[in-house]
Design a protein that fits this description.
Number of domains: 2
Pfam families: Vma12
Strand content: 5-15%
Helix content: 55-70%
Oligomer: single chain
Structural class: mainly alpha
Membrane topology: Multi-pass membrane protein
Number of helices: 7
Largest sheet: 3 strands, antiparallel
Protein name: Transmembrane protein 199
Shape: rod-shaped
Number of strands: 5
Keywords: Endoplasmic reticulum, Membrane, Transmembrane, Transmembrane helix
Distance between the termini: 73 Å
Radius of gyration: 53 Å
Main location: endoplasmic reticulum
Order of helices and strands: EHHEHHEHEEHH
Length: about 200
Amino acid sequence: MASAFEVGERFLDGIAHLIKQEESFPEELRLELEPYLSKRRGATVSFHTLRKLQRFLQERGFPIHLHELLEDSEIYLPEVPKPSRNPELVARLEKIKAKLANEEYKRITKNVNCQELNRYGTLSDLGKQVRSVKAMVITIFNFLVTVVAAFACTYLGSQYIFTETTARVLCAVIAASVVGLAELYVLVRTMEGEMGEL
């Protein structure tokens, strides 16, 4: 809090002149002001001393006013000493800052996966896709084997009923078509069940 003025040359010259001219200048006030006059540079005069000087100037009716003397002066604001920080508090604040930084880092990186193969998916997604393709290839292979086996069995078995080759081939195609449609029905039902589980 301000309690003094850092007085300028105008104040010091005016007071020095006033002390020399005025014989009735109070001795107590002169003793208070003389150290400032000798110091000159960076002199700080307290508000209490300035109030005494103002009272004296008003009582004597001098044409000089205090505010005129203080025109080139500034209020002196002493530097406030900073209290030392509690080491326990500093350690606690550092711990809280580290915790907040860690939470922020986790929030920023929560959707980043270090196992990512490329921008299209992760290694686990690749494994799922490989298993899915493997299952599809096995299903198609099974479908083809079943249809071909149904055709072959019907063709070979129909030689006991039909003597002509065209009738045997026609009968085998019909049987293979029926078995193929049945396989497709089962395959579609299975795929619907798997899609429902996803």
